[in-house]
Design goal:
- The complex is a heterodimer of chains A (113) and B (114).
- Chain A is 0% helix and 52% strand.
- Chain B has no helices and 11 strands.
- In chain B, the strands form 2 sheets. In chain B, strands 2, 4, 5, 6, 9, 10 and 11 form a 7-stranded mixed beta sheet that branches.
- The chains are: A mainly beta (113), B mainly beta (114).
């Protein structure tokens, strides 16, 4: 019940295209869903996060779509750029209590120029 | 630069040995987290401290222990090391322990057990 399943494992997108990464969770108690971006040799960095009281959140070229009934959420990167090439992790946790993030397995995104 | 400092960056040690990983959180952050990243298990939460007190435990082995000192830096102690403990260990910090506060990750400590 603690799992967060992420797909695809790897993704290749042409520059200017839309990158879409999907995640599904099982624990209905989760109510905070962040996305992290990790470059080689670096730690994960928070990209954008959403709470289930909204179905979509947009920050620049990055959008999270959230479907509470399906227990799914996704990251959309519009106008993908080579500099977006990184590994992306979705995560989930409960707002109450400690922030024990449960991470997806990660998606290695490559943006071809 | 996240402001979270981890040392050492790389460490190679033999099976059965003990190592200590050190973390300095961002200035002003009271909460420290330890995560393990490996190819097969992904990013796994190990343990969290808040202002010196243990706040939450995850999939941390009994051979592993951690503490947070009065100056808020934290150490993760790994003992009786096994080959499977080879991984990237991240420290992270946040202002407090409430979910929704941004967690900032360090660059990690690469541990190789041979």
């Amino acid at each position: 019940q603690q799992q967060v399943k992420q797909s695809p494992q790897s993704l290749i997108v042409q520059k200017g295209g839309i990158s879409i990464i999907n995640c599904a969770y099982e624990n209905t108690a989760f109510d905070y869903f962040p996305w992290y971006q990790q470059f080689p040799g670096k730690g994960p960095a928070l990209l954008i996060a959403i709470r289930p009281d909204v179905s979509e959140k947009k920050e620049g070229r990055f959008t999270i779509s959230f479907n509470k009934s399906a227990k799914q959420f996704s990251l959309h990167i519009m106008d993908s750029q080579p500099g977006d090439s990184a590994t992306y992790f979705c995560a989930a946790c409960r707002i109450q209590g400690a922030q024990k993030l449960v991470f997806g397995q990660g998606t290695r995104l490559t943006i071809n120029p | 630069d996240s402001g979270v400092t981890q040392t050492p960056k790389h460490l190679i040690t033999a099976t059965g040995q003990r190592v200590t990983l050190r973390c300095s959180p961002r200035s002003g952050d009271l909460s420290v987290y330890w995560y393990q990243q490996s190819l097969d298990q992904g990013l796994q939460f190990l343990i969290q401290y808040y202002n010196g007190e243990e706040r939450a435990k995850g999939n941390i082995l009994e051979r592993f222990s951690a503490q947070q000192f009065p100056d808020l830096h934290s150490e993760l102690n790994l003992s009786s090391l096994e080959l499977g403990d080879s991984a990237l260990y991240f420290c992270a910090s946040s202002v407090d322990s409430r979910s929704g506060n941004t967690i900032y990750f360090g660059e990690g400590s690469w541990l190789t057990v041979v």
